[in-house]
Amino acid sequence: MSNMIVLPLIVPVITAILLVFLKEHVTLQRIISLLTLSFIIIISVILLVEIQEQGVMRIDFSGWAPPFGISFVADSFATLLVLVANIVALICMLYTIFTMELRYEKMYFYPFTLLMIAGVNGSFLTGDIFNLFVCFEVMLLASYALISLGGEKIQLREALKYVLINIVASWIFLVALAFLYGTVGTLNMAHISIRVMEAGANPLITTVALIFLIVFSLKAGLLLFFWLPGSYSVPPTAIAALFAALLTKVGMYALVRTFTLLFPNNPEVTHTALGIMAGITIIAGCIGALSGRDVRTIASYNVLIGVGFIIIGLAVGTESALQGVIYYLMHDMVAKAMLFLAVGMMIYVTGETVIDKMSGLIRNYPFFGWLFFIAMCSLAGIPPLSGFLGKVLIGQGAIEGGHFVLLGLGFFSSLIVLYSLLRIFLSSFFGETIISLEDEKPLPKRILLPLTLLAVCTIGLGIGAEKLAPFVTDAAETLYTPSIYIDAVLDGQQWQGEVNK
Amino acid sequence: MKINDVILRTITKVVVFIILTLGVYLFFAGHHAPGGGFIGGLVLASGVVLLYLAYDIETVHKGMPFDFKKVAALGVLLATGTAIGSLFFDVPFLTQAHTYIDAPIFGKMGFSTVTIFEAGVALTVVGVVVTIILSISEDE
Which residue numbers delimit the NADH:quinone oxidoreductase/Mrp antiporter transmembrane domain (chain A) (predicted)? Predict the structure, then answer.
Protein backbone atom coordinates (compact mmCIF):
# COMPACT_ATOMS: atom_id res chain seq x y z
CA MET A 1 0.00 0.00 0.00
CA SER A 2 1.31 3.38 -0.89
CA ASN A 3 -0.97 6.36 -0.97
CA MET A 4 1.60 8.21 -3.02
CA ILE A 5 0.24 6.66 -6.23
CA VAL A 6 -3.00 8.58 -5.94
CA LEU A 7 -1.34 11.99 -5.49
CA PRO A 8 -0.84 12.72 -9.24
CA LEU A 9 -4.62 12.45 -9.60
CA ILE A 10 -5.94 14.07 -6.46
CA VAL A 11 -3.52 16.97 -5.96
CA PRO A 12 -4.33 18.71 -9.27
CA VAL A 13 -8.06 18.19 -8.66
CA ILE A 14 -7.87 19.88 -5.28
CA THR A 15 -5.69 22.75 -6.42
CA ALA A 16 -7.91 23.24 -9.48
CA ILE A 17 -10.90 23.66 -7.19
CA LEU A 18 -9.00 26.05 -4.93
CA LEU A 19 -8.15 28.14 -7.99
CA VAL A 20 -11.87 28.54 -8.76
CA PHE A 21 -12.10 30.60 -5.56
CA LEU A 22 -9.07 32.65 -6.62
CA LYS A 23 -10.50 33.66 -9.99
CA GLU A 24 -9.38 37.28 -9.78
CA HIS A 25 -5.89 36.63 -8.36
CA VAL A 26 -4.09 35.63 -11.54
CA THR A 27 -0.57 35.75 -10.07
CA LEU A 28 -1.56 33.44 -7.22
CA GLN A 29 -3.21 31.08 -9.72
CA ARG A 30 -0.02 30.92 -11.76
CA ILE A 31 2.17 30.20 -8.74
CA ILE A 32 -0.13 27.49 -7.37
CA SER A 33 -0.43 25.78 -10.78
CA LEU A 34 3.33 25.72 -11.28
CA LEU A 35 3.88 24.42 -7.75
CA THR A 36 1.29 21.67 -8.26
CA LEU A 37 2.93 20.42 -11.43
CA SER A 38 6.41 20.57 -9.89
CA PHE A 39 5.10 18.58 -6.92
CA ILE A 40 3.73 15.86 -9.21
CA ILE A 41 7.03 15.70 -11.08
CA ILE A 42 8.86 15.10 -7.79
CA ILE A 43 6.30 12.49 -6.72
CA SER A 44 6.61 10.59 -9.98
CA VAL A 45 10.41 10.53 -9.74
CA ILE A 46 10.15 9.09 -6.23
CA LEU A 47 7.58 6.55 -7.46
CA LEU A 48 9.84 5.52 -10.34
CA VAL A 49 12.74 4.86 -8.00
CA GLU A 50 10.55 2.92 -5.59
CA ILE A 51 9.10 0.78 -8.38
CA GLN A 52 12.63 -0.29 -9.32
CA GLU A 53 13.16 -1.44 -5.73
CA GLN A 54 9.90 -3.15 -4.89
CA GLY A 55 8.26 -3.87 -8.24
CA VAL A 56 4.85 -2.76 -9.47
CA MET A 57 3.01 -0.82 -6.75
CA ARG A 58 -0.71 -0.52 -6.14
CA ILE A 59 -3.19 1.15 -3.82
CA ASP A 60 -6.68 -0.23 -3.18
CA PHE A 61 -9.10 2.61 -2.60
CA SER A 62 -10.82 2.33 0.77
CA GLY A 63 -8.98 -0.95 1.31
CA TRP A 64 -11.29 -2.97 -0.96
CA ALA A 65 -9.06 -5.73 -2.29
CA PRO A 66 -8.91 -6.30 -6.05
CA PRO A 67 -10.71 -7.45 -8.12
CA PHE A 68 -13.65 -6.05 -6.14
CA GLY A 69 -12.50 -2.51 -5.43
CA ILE A 70 -10.87 0.11 -7.60
CA SER A 71 -7.08 0.11 -7.57
CA PHE A 72 -4.42 2.43 -8.87
CA VAL A 73 -1.44 0.53 -10.21
CA ALA A 74 1.90 2.21 -10.82
CA ASP A 75 4.31 0.34 -13.05
CA SER A 76 7.34 1.89 -14.73
CA PHE A 77 5.46 2.47 -18.00
CA ALA A 78 2.65 4.48 -16.43
CA THR A 79 4.95 6.40 -14.11
CA LEU A 80 7.40 7.34 -16.86
CA LEU A 81 4.50 8.75 -18.87
CA VAL A 82 3.15 10.64 -15.85
CA LEU A 83 6.61 12.13 -15.33
CA VAL A 84 7.12 13.28 -18.92
CA ALA A 85 3.51 14.46 -19.29
CA ASN A 86 3.82 16.69 -16.25
CA ILE A 87 7.18 18.09 -17.30
CA VAL A 88 5.71 19.02 -20.68
CA ALA A 89 2.60 20.45 -19.02
CA LEU A 90 4.75 22.56 -16.72
CA ILE A 91 6.67 23.99 -19.67
CA CYS A 92 3.48 24.68 -21.64
CA MET A 93 2.08 26.42 -18.59
CA LEU A 94 5.18 28.63 -18.42
CA TYR A 95 4.50 29.58 -22.02
CA THR A 96 0.90 30.41 -21.11
CA ILE A 97 2.01 32.63 -18.27
CA PHE A 98 4.32 34.58 -20.59
CA THR A 99 1.96 34.93 -23.52
CA MET A 100 -1.71 34.37 -22.66
CA GLU A 101 -4.02 37.33 -22.54
CA LEU A 102 -5.33 38.17 -19.11
CA ARG A 103 -8.95 37.61 -20.10
CA TYR A 104 -8.19 33.97 -20.99
CA GLU A 105 -6.39 33.45 -17.72
CA LYS A 106 -9.40 34.75 -15.80
CA MET A 107 -11.71 32.38 -17.67
CA TYR A 108 -10.65 29.47 -15.47
CA PHE A 109 -7.72 28.51 -17.72
CA TYR A 110 -5.61 27.14 -14.85
CA PRO A 111 -8.37 25.10 -13.15
CA PHE A 112 -9.31 23.46 -16.47
CA THR A 113 -5.70 22.69 -17.34
CA LEU A 114 -5.08 21.16 -13.93
CA LEU A 115 -8.26 19.06 -14.21
CA MET A 116 -7.11 17.87 -17.63
CA ILE A 117 -3.72 16.92 -16.16
CA ALA A 118 -5.53 15.09 -13.36
CA GLY A 119 -7.51 13.12 -15.94
CA VAL A 120 -4.35 12.32 -17.90
CA ASN A 121 -2.48 11.16 -14.77
CA GLY A 122 -5.48 9.14 -13.62
CA SER A 123 -5.77 7.42 -17.01
CA PHE A 124 -2.12 6.40 -16.85
CA LEU A 125 -2.25 5.09 -13.30
CA THR A 126 -5.61 3.39 -12.97
CA GLY A 127 -5.86 -0.39 -12.80
CA ASP A 128 -9.59 -0.57 -13.39
CA ILE A 129 -11.01 -0.22 -16.86
CA PHE A 130 -14.18 1.54 -15.79
CA ASN A 131 -12.07 3.99 -13.84
CA LEU A 132 -10.09 4.52 -17.04
CA PHE A 133 -13.36 5.61 -18.65
CA VAL A 134 -14.01 8.04 -15.79
CA CYS A 135 -10.50 9.53 -16.02
CA PHE A 136 -10.89 9.86 -19.80
CA GLU A 137 -14.09 11.81 -19.20
CA VAL A 138 -12.44 14.11 -16.64
CA MET A 139 -9.72 14.83 -19.18
CA LEU A 140 -12.16 15.31 -22.07
CA LEU A 141 -14.59 17.56 -20.19
CA ALA A 142 -11.72 19.85 -19.28
CA SER A 143 -10.47 19.76 -22.86
CA TYR A 144 -13.95 20.70 -24.19
CA ALA A 145 -13.75 23.84 -22.10
CA LEU A 146 -10.15 24.55 -23.12
CA ILE A 147 -10.72 24.12 -26.86
CA SER A 148 -13.52 26.68 -26.86
CA LEU A 149 -11.79 29.08 -24.46
CA GLY A 150 -12.11 32.55 -25.91
CA GLY A 151 -15.25 31.66 -27.86
CA GLU A 152 -14.19 32.71 -31.35
CA LYS A 153 -16.38 31.59 -34.23
CA ILE A 154 -13.94 29.11 -35.74
CA GLN A 155 -13.20 27.70 -32.31
CA LEU A 156 -16.87 27.02 -31.67
CA ARG A 157 -17.18 25.26 -35.04
CA GLU A 158 -14.24 22.96 -34.33
CA ALA A 159 -15.20 22.52 -30.68
CA LEU A 160 -18.63 21.29 -31.74
CA LYS A 161 -17.05 18.64 -33.97
CA TYR A 162 -14.59 17.72 -31.26
CA VAL A 163 -17.28 17.38 -28.58
CA LEU A 164 -19.60 15.37 -30.82
CA ILE A 165 -16.93 12.93 -31.94
CA ASN A 166 -15.73 12.41 -28.40
CA ILE A 167 -19.21 11.92 -27.02
CA VAL A 168 -19.85 9.25 -29.65
CA ALA A 169 -16.49 7.67 -28.82
CA SER A 170 -17.29 7.71 -25.11
CA TRP A 171 -20.63 6.13 -25.78
CA ILE A 172 -18.98 3.31 -27.74
CA PHE A 173 -16.49 3.00 -24.87
CA LEU A 174 -19.36 2.52 -22.43
CA VAL A 175 -21.02 -0.05 -24.68
CA ALA A 176 -17.71 -1.88 -25.01
CA LEU A 177 -17.35 -1.89 -21.23
CA ALA A 178 -20.82 -3.37 -20.90
CA PHE A 179 -19.97 -6.11 -23.43
CA LEU A 180 -16.70 -6.78 -21.64
CA TYR A 181 -18.37 -7.01 -18.24
CA GLY A 182 -21.05 -9.25 -19.69
CA THR A 183 -18.41 -11.52 -21.25
CA VAL A 184 -15.76 -11.83 -18.56
CA GLY A 185 -17.61 -10.53 -15.50
CA THR A 186 -14.92 -8.23 -14.12
CA LEU A 187 -13.55 -4.74 -14.65
CA ASN A 188 -10.18 -5.01 -12.92
CA MET A 189 -7.61 -5.00 -15.72
CA ALA A 190 -5.43 -7.73 -14.23
CA HIS A 191 -8.46 -9.91 -13.55
CA ILE A 192 -9.77 -9.34 -17.09
CA SER A 193 -6.38 -10.46 -18.36
CA ILE A 194 -6.65 -13.76 -16.46
CA ARG A 195 -10.20 -14.43 -17.59
CA VAL A 196 -9.27 -13.67 -21.19
CA MET A 197 -6.26 -15.98 -21.00
CA GLU A 198 -8.51 -18.76 -19.69
CA ALA A 199 -10.93 -18.26 -22.56
CA GLY A 200 -8.18 -18.28 -25.22
CA ALA A 201 -9.04 -17.16 -28.75
CA ASN A 202 -12.72 -16.77 -28.02
CA PRO A 203 -14.50 -14.99 -30.92
CA LEU A 204 -16.75 -13.05 -28.52
CA ILE A 205 -13.76 -11.63 -26.67
CA THR A 206 -12.03 -10.80 -29.94
CA THR A 207 -15.11 -8.81 -30.96
CA VAL A 208 -15.05 -6.90 -27.70
CA ALA A 209 -11.33 -6.26 -28.22
CA LEU A 210 -12.06 -4.84 -31.67
CA ILE A 211 -14.69 -2.49 -30.24
CA PHE A 212 -12.10 -1.23 -27.77
CA LEU A 213 -9.74 -0.83 -30.71
CA ILE A 214 -12.27 1.48 -32.41
CA VAL A 215 -12.81 3.51 -29.23
CA PHE A 216 -9.16 4.09 -28.47
CA SER A 217 -8.34 4.70 -32.14
CA LEU A 218 -10.85 7.54 -32.13
CA LYS A 219 -9.19 8.99 -29.05
CA ALA A 220 -5.62 8.42 -30.22
CA GLY A 221 -6.17 9.59 -33.80
CA LEU A 222 -5.28 6.19 -35.25
CA LEU A 223 -6.94 5.91 -38.65
CA LEU A 224 -10.12 7.55 -37.31
CA PHE A 225 -8.39 10.93 -37.13
CA PHE A 226 -10.66 13.08 -39.30
CA TRP A 227 -11.47 15.34 -36.35
CA LEU A 228 -7.89 15.91 -35.29
CA PRO A 229 -6.25 18.41 -37.69
CA GLY A 230 -9.13 20.87 -37.35
CA SER A 231 -9.47 20.65 -33.58
CA TYR A 232 -5.77 20.99 -32.89
CA SER A 233 -5.28 24.09 -35.00
CA VAL A 234 -7.89 26.43 -33.47
CA PRO A 235 -7.16 26.86 -29.74
CA PRO A 236 -4.51 29.30 -28.42
CA THR A 237 -0.93 28.06 -28.91
CA ALA A 238 -0.24 26.84 -25.38
CA ILE A 239 -3.48 24.84 -25.30
CA ALA A 240 -2.88 23.36 -28.75
CA ALA A 241 0.60 22.32 -27.62
CA LEU A 242 -0.85 20.65 -24.52
CA PHE A 243 -3.44 18.82 -26.61
CA ALA A 244 -0.89 17.65 -29.16
CA ALA A 245 1.50 16.55 -26.44
CA LEU A 246 -0.91 14.81 -24.08
CA LEU A 247 -4.35 13.87 -25.39
CA THR A 248 -3.51 11.51 -28.23
CA LYS A 249 -0.83 9.96 -26.00
CA VAL A 250 -3.47 8.93 -23.49
CA GLY A 251 -5.36 7.17 -26.27
CA MET A 252 -2.15 5.46 -27.31
CA TYR A 253 -1.39 4.50 -23.73
CA ALA A 254 -4.84 2.89 -23.56
CA LEU A 255 -4.17 1.01 -26.82
CA VAL A 256 -0.83 -0.26 -25.53
CA ARG A 257 -2.34 -1.33 -22.21
CA THR A 258 -5.34 -2.97 -23.88
CA PHE A 259 -3.38 -4.97 -26.41
CA THR A 260 -0.51 -6.03 -24.17
CA LEU A 261 -2.33 -6.73 -20.92
CA LEU A 262 -6.02 -7.24 -21.63
CA PHE A 263 -6.33 -8.86 -25.04
CA PRO A 264 -3.07 -10.52 -26.05
CA ASN A 265 -5.06 -13.67 -26.78
CA ASN A 266 -5.74 -13.33 -30.49
CA PRO A 267 -2.90 -11.36 -32.07
CA GLU A 268 -3.62 -12.71 -35.57
CA VAL A 269 -6.73 -10.56 -35.66
CA THR A 270 -6.10 -7.66 -33.30
CA HIS A 271 -2.44 -6.98 -33.95
CA THR A 272 -2.88 -7.37 -37.69
CA ALA A 273 -5.68 -4.82 -37.53
CA LEU A 274 -3.42 -2.51 -35.51
CA GLY A 275 -0.65 -2.87 -38.07
CA ILE A 276 -2.91 -2.10 -41.03
CA MET A 277 -4.45 0.89 -39.26
CA ALA A 278 -1.00 2.21 -38.31
CA GLY A 279 0.18 1.86 -41.91
CA ILE A 280 -2.81 3.73 -43.33
CA THR A 281 -2.50 6.44 -40.65
CA ILE A 282 1.13 7.02 -41.60
CA ILE A 283 0.34 7.22 -45.32
CA ALA A 284 -2.56 9.61 -44.74
CA GLY A 285 -0.51 11.68 -42.30
CA CYS A 286 2.31 11.95 -44.83
CA ILE A 287 -0.06 13.05 -47.60
CA GLY A 288 -1.57 15.67 -45.29
CA ALA A 289 1.79 16.95 -44.12
CA LEU A 290 3.09 17.21 -47.69
CA SER A 291 0.04 18.93 -49.12
CA GLY A 292 -0.50 21.42 -46.29
CA ARG A 293 0.45 25.05 -46.79
CA ASP A 294 -0.69 26.23 -43.38
CA VAL A 295 1.93 25.68 -40.65
CA ARG A 296 -0.71 24.53 -38.19
CA THR A 297 -2.06 21.94 -40.61
CA ILE A 298 1.43 20.59 -41.27
CA ALA A 299 2.05 20.35 -37.53
CA SER A 300 -1.28 18.57 -36.93
CA TYR A 301 -0.59 15.97 -39.63
CA ASN A 302 2.81 15.40 -38.04
CA VAL A 303 0.93 14.34 -34.90
CA LEU A 304 -0.76 11.63 -36.97
CA ILE A 305 2.53 10.34 -38.36
CA GLY A 306 3.77 10.02 -34.78
CA VAL A 307 0.64 8.09 -33.78
CA GLY A 308 1.05 5.67 -36.68
CA PHE A 309 4.72 5.12 -35.92
CA ILE A 310 4.13 4.30 -32.26
CA ILE A 311 1.32 1.89 -33.09
CA ILE A 312 3.66 0.07 -35.51
CA GLY A 313 5.74 -0.73 -32.43
CA LEU A 314 2.66 -2.06 -30.66
CA ALA A 315 1.54 -4.10 -33.67
CA VAL A 316 4.97 -5.71 -33.88
CA GLY A 317 4.85 -6.37 -30.16
CA THR A 318 8.32 -7.78 -29.47
CA GLU A 319 10.09 -6.66 -26.31
CA SER A 320 12.50 -4.33 -28.09
CA ALA A 321 9.64 -2.85 -30.11
CA LEU A 322 7.79 -2.14 -26.85
CA GLN A 323 10.91 -0.45 -25.47
CA GLY A 324 10.90 1.65 -28.62
CA VAL A 325 7.23 2.47 -28.06
CA ILE A 326 8.00 3.75 -24.56
CA TYR A 327 10.98 5.82 -25.67
CA TYR A 328 9.04 7.18 -28.61
CA LEU A 329 5.95 8.05 -26.54
CA MET A 330 8.10 10.11 -24.18
CA HIS A 331 9.94 11.72 -27.09
CA ASP A 332 6.71 12.46 -28.92
CA MET A 333 5.22 14.34 -25.97
CA VAL A 334 8.26 16.62 -25.78
CA ALA A 335 8.77 17.02 -29.53
CA LYS A 336 5.12 17.69 -30.39
CA ALA A 337 4.81 20.28 -27.64
CA MET A 338 7.95 21.90 -29.06
CA LEU A 339 6.65 21.85 -32.63
CA PHE A 340 3.30 23.37 -31.67
CA LEU A 341 4.89 26.08 -29.52
CA ALA A 342 7.32 26.92 -32.33
CA VAL A 343 4.49 27.08 -34.88
CA GLY A 344 2.47 29.25 -32.51
CA MET A 345 5.39 31.62 -32.14
CA MET A 346 5.86 31.83 -35.91
CA ILE A 347 2.24 32.90 -36.24
CA TYR A 348 2.66 35.32 -33.36
CA VAL A 349 5.66 37.13 -34.84
CA THR A 350 4.46 37.25 -38.45
CA GLY A 351 0.69 37.25 -38.14
CA GLU A 352 0.60 34.81 -41.04
CA THR A 353 -0.24 31.11 -41.10
CA VAL A 354 0.73 30.17 -44.66
CA ILE A 355 4.38 29.18 -45.08
CA ASP A 356 4.91 31.02 -48.38
CA LYS A 357 4.00 34.34 -46.79
CA MET A 358 6.74 34.06 -44.18
CA SER A 359 10.37 34.41 -45.05
CA GLY A 360 13.75 35.03 -43.49
CA LEU A 361 12.64 34.68 -39.89
CA ILE A 362 16.07 33.42 -38.93
CA ARG A 363 17.57 36.83 -39.70
CA ASN A 364 15.24 38.52 -37.25
CA TYR A 365 15.16 35.81 -34.62
CA PRO A 366 18.28 33.65 -35.00
CA PHE A 367 17.92 31.78 -31.71
CA PHE A 368 14.28 30.92 -32.40
CA GLY A 369 15.25 29.68 -35.85
CA TRP A 370 17.79 27.24 -34.47
CA LEU A 371 15.34 26.04 -31.83
CA PHE A 372 12.95 25.18 -34.65
CA PHE A 373 15.83 23.38 -36.34
CA ILE A 374 16.34 21.26 -33.18
CA ALA A 375 12.61 20.43 -33.08
CA MET A 376 12.78 19.37 -36.73
CA CYS A 377 15.84 17.15 -36.23
CA SER A 378 14.29 15.65 -33.12
CA LEU A 379 11.05 14.76 -34.92
CA ALA A 380 12.93 13.31 -37.87
CA GLY A 381 14.89 11.14 -35.45
CA ILE A 382 18.39 12.41 -35.99
CA PRO A 383 20.86 11.30 -33.30
CA PRO A 384 21.66 12.31 -30.59
CA LEU A 385 18.15 13.76 -30.15
CA SER A 386 15.36 11.88 -28.46
CA GLY A 387 13.54 10.52 -31.51
CA PHE A 388 16.47 8.41 -32.64
CA LEU A 389 16.50 5.60 -30.08
CA GLY A 390 12.75 5.02 -30.28
CA LYS A 391 12.93 4.70 -34.05
CA VAL A 392 15.89 2.32 -33.92
CA LEU A 393 14.25 0.07 -31.33
CA ILE A 394 10.90 -0.04 -33.12
CA GLY A 395 12.78 -0.77 -36.36
CA GLN A 396 14.77 -3.52 -34.67
CA GLY A 397 11.55 -5.03 -33.33
CA ALA A 398 9.96 -4.89 -36.78
CA ILE A 399 12.93 -6.78 -38.26
CA GLU A 400 12.77 -9.40 -35.50
CA GLY A 401 9.06 -9.85 -36.11
CA GLY A 402 9.48 -9.86 -39.88
CA HIS A 403 7.13 -6.92 -40.46
CA PHE A 404 9.07 -5.43 -43.35
CA VAL A 405 6.22 -3.44 -44.89
CA LEU A 406 5.59 -1.64 -41.61
CA LEU A 407 9.32 -1.14 -41.19
CA GLY A 408 9.57 0.46 -44.61
CA LEU A 409 6.54 2.67 -44.01
CA GLY A 410 7.87 3.78 -40.62
CA PHE A 411 11.25 4.85 -41.91
CA PHE A 412 9.77 6.33 -45.06
CA SER A 413 7.59 8.49 -42.81
CA SER A 414 10.69 9.86 -41.06
CA LEU A 415 11.83 11.21 -44.40
CA ILE A 416 8.45 12.82 -45.01
CA VAL A 417 8.48 14.38 -41.53
CA LEU A 418 11.91 15.78 -42.28
CA TYR A 419 10.82 17.02 -45.70
CA SER A 420 7.58 18.64 -44.49
CA LEU A 421 9.36 20.49 -41.69
CA LEU A 422 12.33 21.34 -43.87
CA ARG A 423 9.85 22.99 -46.21
CA ILE A 424 8.70 25.24 -43.36
CA PHE A 425 12.31 25.85 -42.41
CA LEU A 426 13.48 26.73 -45.92
CA SER A 427 10.57 28.91 -46.93
CA SER A 428 9.86 30.65 -43.62
CA PHE A 429 13.18 30.85 -41.84
CA PHE A 430 15.63 31.11 -44.72
CA GLY A 431 15.46 33.51 -47.64
CA GLU A 432 15.00 37.24 -47.79
CA THR A 433 13.55 38.71 -44.65
CA ILE A 434 10.13 40.30 -45.02
CA ILE A 435 10.11 41.93 -41.61
CA SER A 436 12.03 45.19 -41.51
CA LEU A 437 13.90 46.04 -38.34
CA GLU A 438 11.36 48.68 -37.36
CA ASP A 439 8.36 46.36 -37.74
CA GLU A 440 10.07 43.51 -35.93
CA LYS A 441 7.91 42.30 -33.08
CA PRO A 442 10.08 41.97 -30.01
CA LEU A 443 10.48 38.36 -28.91
CA PRO A 444 11.56 38.63 -25.29
CA LYS A 445 13.94 35.99 -23.95
CA ARG A 446 11.34 34.72 -21.49
CA ILE A 447 8.98 33.73 -24.31
CA LEU A 448 11.79 31.67 -25.77
CA LEU A 449 12.48 30.06 -22.40
CA PRO A 450 9.78 27.32 -22.63
CA LEU A 451 10.94 26.37 -26.11
CA THR A 452 14.53 26.28 -24.89
CA LEU A 453 13.53 24.08 -21.97
CA LEU A 454 11.81 21.67 -24.34
CA ALA A 455 14.93 21.64 -26.51
CA VAL A 456 16.95 20.77 -23.41
CA CYS A 457 14.44 17.97 -22.68
CA THR A 458 14.70 16.47 -26.14
CA ILE A 459 18.50 16.61 -26.06
CA GLY A 460 18.45 15.24 -22.52
CA LEU A 461 16.12 12.38 -23.47
CA GLY A 462 18.44 11.53 -26.34
CA ILE A 463 21.77 11.76 -24.54
CA GLY A 464 20.42 10.56 -21.20
CA ALA A 465 18.79 7.48 -22.77
CA GLU A 466 21.44 5.39 -21.07
CA LYS A 467 20.33 6.68 -17.66
CA LEU A 468 16.68 6.01 -18.52
CA ALA A 469 17.41 2.54 -19.85
CA PRO A 470 16.79 0.60 -16.58
CA PHE A 471 13.35 2.21 -16.19
CA VAL A 472 12.39 1.66 -19.81
CA THR A 473 13.65 -1.93 -19.80
CA ASP A 474 11.60 -2.62 -16.70
CA ALA A 475 8.54 -0.98 -18.23
CA ALA A 476 8.86 -2.98 -21.45
CA GLU A 477 9.38 -6.20 -19.51
CA THR A 478 6.17 -5.57 -17.56
CA LEU A 479 4.31 -4.91 -20.80
CA TYR A 480 5.78 -7.95 -22.53
CA THR A 481 5.14 -10.29 -19.59
CA PRO A 482 1.68 -9.41 -18.26
CA SER A 483 2.07 -11.88 -15.38
CA ILE A 484 4.35 -9.40 -13.58
CA TYR A 485 1.53 -6.86 -13.55
CA ILE A 486 -1.09 -9.46 -12.65
CA ASP A 487 1.04 -10.84 -9.81
CA ALA A 488 1.40 -7.39 -8.33
CA VAL A 489 -2.31 -6.64 -8.53
CA LEU A 490 -3.75 -9.98 -7.50
CA ASP A 491 -1.09 -11.04 -4.98
CA GLY A 492 0.68 -13.88 -6.71
CA GLN A 493 -0.55 -17.40 -6.14
CA GLN A 494 -4.24 -16.74 -5.76
CA TRP A 495 -4.89 -16.15 -9.46
CA GLN A 496 -2.71 -18.96 -10.72
CA GLY A 497 -4.87 -21.30 -8.69
CA GLU A 498 -7.87 -19.90 -10.46
CA VAL A 499 -6.30 -20.51 -13.87
CA ASN A 500 -5.44 -24.11 -12.96
CA LYS A 501 -9.00 -24.73 -11.85
CA MET B 1 -46.92 41.20 -21.51
CA LYS B 2 -46.98 39.99 -17.97
CA ILE B 3 -48.04 36.41 -17.57
CA ASN B 4 -50.54 35.74 -14.82
CA ASP B 5 -48.84 32.97 -12.89
CA VAL B 6 -50.46 33.40 -9.51
CA ILE B 7 -51.31 29.72 -9.28
CA LEU B 8 -47.76 28.63 -10.08
CA ARG B 9 -46.29 31.01 -7.53
CA THR B 10 -48.67 30.04 -4.74
CA ILE B 11 -48.16 26.35 -5.29
CA THR B 12 -44.41 26.81 -5.58
CA LYS B 13 -44.24 28.37 -2.13
CA VAL B 14 -45.66 25.20 -0.62
CA VAL B 15 -44.19 22.63 -2.96
CA VAL B 16 -40.60 23.88 -2.71
CA PHE B 17 -40.60 23.01 1.00
CA ILE B 18 -41.88 19.53 0.25
CA ILE B 19 -39.22 19.07 -2.44
CA LEU B 20 -36.42 20.33 -0.23
CA THR B 21 -37.53 18.10 2.64
CA LEU B 22 -37.67 15.11 0.32
CA GLY B 23 -34.18 16.02 -0.91
CA VAL B 24 -32.78 16.08 2.59
CA TYR B 25 -34.60 12.84 3.45
CA LEU B 26 -33.18 11.10 0.36
CA PHE B 27 -29.73 12.40 1.23
CA PHE B 28 -29.76 10.78 4.68
CA ALA B 29 -31.64 7.69 3.55
CA GLY B 30 -28.81 6.99 1.15
CA HIS B 31 -26.62 5.62 3.91
CA HIS B 32 -28.41 2.27 4.00
CA ALA B 33 -31.23 2.53 1.45
CA PRO B 34 -31.66 3.95 -2.07
CA GLY B 35 -30.79 7.64 -2.10
CA GLY B 36 -27.58 9.47 -1.31
CA GLY B 37 -25.71 12.61 -2.23
CA PHE B 38 -26.26 12.50 -5.96
CA ILE B 39 -29.99 11.83 -5.85
CA GLY B 40 -30.58 14.11 -2.88
CA GLY B 41 -28.61 16.82 -4.65
CA LEU B 42 -30.67 16.43 -7.83
CA VAL B 43 -33.92 16.78 -5.90
CA LEU B 44 -32.64 19.81 -4.00
CA ALA B 45 -31.52 21.37 -7.27
CA SER B 46 -34.94 20.74 -8.83
CA GLY B 47 -36.47 22.70 -5.95
CA VAL B 48 -34.16 25.63 -6.67
CA VAL B 49 -34.89 25.43 -10.38
CA LEU B 50 -38.62 25.49 -9.67
CA LEU B 51 -38.10 28.72 -7.71
CA TYR B 52 -36.27 30.20 -10.69
CA LEU B 53 -39.14 29.19 -12.97
CA ALA B 54 -41.88 30.64 -10.79
CA TYR B 55 -40.05 33.86 -9.89
CA ASP B 56 -37.38 35.70 -11.84
CA ILE B 57 -33.65 35.30 -11.40
CA GLU B 58 -33.20 38.56 -9.49
CA THR B 59 -35.79 37.77 -6.84
CA VAL B 60 -34.40 34.31 -6.17
CA HIS B 61 -30.89 35.67 -6.18
CA LYS B 62 -31.86 38.13 -3.42
CA GLY B 63 -32.96 35.24 -1.26
CA MET B 64 -30.03 32.99 -2.14
CA PRO B 65 -27.06 35.21 -2.96
CA PHE B 66 -24.73 32.32 -3.85
CA ASP B 67 -22.51 31.95 -6.86
CA PHE B 68 -23.52 28.41 -7.77
CA LYS B 69 -20.20 27.78 -9.53
CA LYS B 70 -18.58 28.26 -6.15
CA VAL B 71 -21.15 26.01 -4.48
CA ALA B 72 -20.10 23.25 -6.89
CA ALA B 73 -16.43 23.95 -6.21
CA LEU B 74 -17.04 23.86 -2.47
CA GLY B 75 -18.76 20.50 -2.90
CA VAL B 76 -15.83 18.99 -4.77
CA LEU B 77 -13.47 20.41 -2.17
CA LEU B 78 -15.49 18.79 0.63
CA ALA B 79 -15.63 15.41 -1.12
CA THR B 80 -11.94 15.34 -2.08
CA GLY B 81 -11.09 16.71 1.36
CA THR B 82 -12.57 13.68 3.14
CA ALA B 83 -10.93 11.46 0.54
CA ILE B 84 -7.44 12.75 1.25
CA GLY B 85 -8.16 12.94 4.96
CA SER B 86 -7.42 9.22 4.97
CA LEU B 87 -3.88 9.91 3.78
CA PHE B 88 -3.02 11.50 7.11
CA PHE B 89 -4.05 8.40 9.08
CA ASP B 90 -1.90 6.07 6.98
CA VAL B 91 -4.84 4.09 5.66
CA PRO B 92 -5.70 3.62 1.95
CA PHE B 93 -7.04 6.60 0.03
CA LEU B 94 -10.82 7.15 0.40
CA THR B 95 -11.09 5.03 3.56
CA GLN B 96 -14.05 6.19 5.66
CA ALA B 97 -14.44 6.10 9.44
CA HIS B 98 -17.67 5.59 11.37
CA THR B 99 -18.78 5.30 14.96
CA TYR B 100 -21.94 4.87 17.07
CA ILE B 101 -22.90 7.23 19.86
CA ASP B 102 -25.63 6.75 22.46
CA ALA B 103 -27.37 10.09 22.52
CA PRO B 104 -29.79 10.90 25.40
CA ILE B 105 -33.00 11.31 23.42
CA PHE B 106 -32.36 9.74 20.02
CA GLY B 107 -30.74 6.55 21.31
CA LYS B 108 -28.10 4.84 19.24
CA MET B 109 -26.87 7.15 16.45
CA GLY B 110 -24.41 6.38 13.70
CA PHE B 111 -21.87 8.96 12.56
CA SER B 112 -19.75 8.45 9.52
CA THR B 113 -17.30 10.55 7.52
CA VAL B 114 -18.96 9.25 4.39
CA THR B 115 -21.80 11.67 5.15
CA ILE B 116 -19.41 14.59 4.68
CA PHE B 117 -18.27 13.06 1.40
CA GLU B 118 -21.91 12.71 0.32
CA ALA B 119 -22.63 16.28 1.37
CA GLY B 120 -19.83 17.30 -0.99
CA VAL B 121 -21.43 15.29 -3.78
CA ALA B 122 -24.84 16.87 -3.07
CA LEU B 123 -23.41 20.40 -3.12
CA THR B 124 -21.60 19.68 -6.37
CA VAL B 125 -24.77 18.38 -8.01
CA VAL B 126 -26.81 21.37 -6.82
CA GLY B 127 -24.13 23.79 -7.99
CA VAL B 128 -23.66 22.19 -11.39
CA VAL B 129 -27.37 21.70 -12.17
CA VAL B 130 -28.29 25.26 -11.23
CA THR B 131 -25.30 26.67 -13.13
CA ILE B 132 -26.30 24.74 -16.26
CA ILE B 133 -29.94 25.87 -16.04
CA LEU B 134 -28.93 29.48 -15.42
CA SER B 135 -26.48 29.57 -18.33
CA ILE B 136 -29.09 28.11 -20.67
CA SER B 137 -31.65 30.69 -19.52
CA GLU B 138 -29.31 33.64 -20.03
CA ASP B 139 -29.71 34.91 -23.58
CA GLU B 140 -27.40 37.37 -25.22
Answer: 128-416
